[in-house]
Amino acid sequence: MEEEVLKKYLKAGKIAAEALEYGRSLVRPGESLLDVAEKIEAKIVSLGALPAFPVNISFNETAAHYTPVPGDTLKFNDELVKLDVGVHVDGFVGGDTAVTIDLSGKYTDLVKASKDALDAALKVIQVGTTLGQIGKEIEQAIVSHGFQPVRNLSGHALGEYMIHGSPSIPNYDTEDDTELEDGMTIAIEPFASTGVGLIHEKGIPYIHSMIGAKPVRNPGTRQILTKINAYNGLPFANRWLTKDFPAFKVAFALRELNQLEILHSYPPLVERTPGAFISQAEHSVYVGDKVIVMTRFP
Predict the structure, then answer these.
(1) What is the pLDDT of residue 224?
(2) Cα–Cα distance for residue pair 63/76, rounded to 1 Å
């Protein structure tokens, strides 16, 4: 990897780590989800980068993909909170990092399970480590705490204007003998569940990304599409668009763009087991002669 490119990945990772720690300090009972998300995103910009995706703030049984909506009135209370932050510098996504915050005080072991799984995976990361080996370390750590890894969520490669690239990094032992290669940038992302460890899409999506280009007739939709194009395929939120356009125009445009298969939308990802809870931990890593955890704080 070119030195200048690596510097951009490392800068993005450092800013993501700082933004996540800042966000952690904001998550308190009575605080607004919308305020917290927007403060974190503003922090990223103030530090010289841009969000690689909308800040995810997911509660309890929801593993990921909830971000506050325009005018969101939700406030923190006693939830199990997953806070997930992404950062890029000039398109290079070196910062994808997450933490679980237990506002109830009831899920200390579950939080520790995903954190220990992340730590176990990081200890074996090097050029030549197999994907199956990483998954095995994650699975053993989570199961040792009496929980299940979420099997249909995974870590992933990071790249230029790319969050979820190949290879996927499993959260259980797949026995996949694909090896990590020199110069890879990857996110390790264990999820631990009190349920069966399988998620499904449920609810209204407020996160989207552009996946194609087709002619669009409606002038209002074309105007909003120009804004979307500026994200270069990275995910964006409804609330980002409503800063510049009326909410009803944004809703119409998103519906039309989905129908035209120009956009892909991401509903919240929820544990299939009713009443189950999920924790998450995540770091971004550069794999080389020296392995660098890019999102470690400080």
Answers:
(1) 98
(2) 16
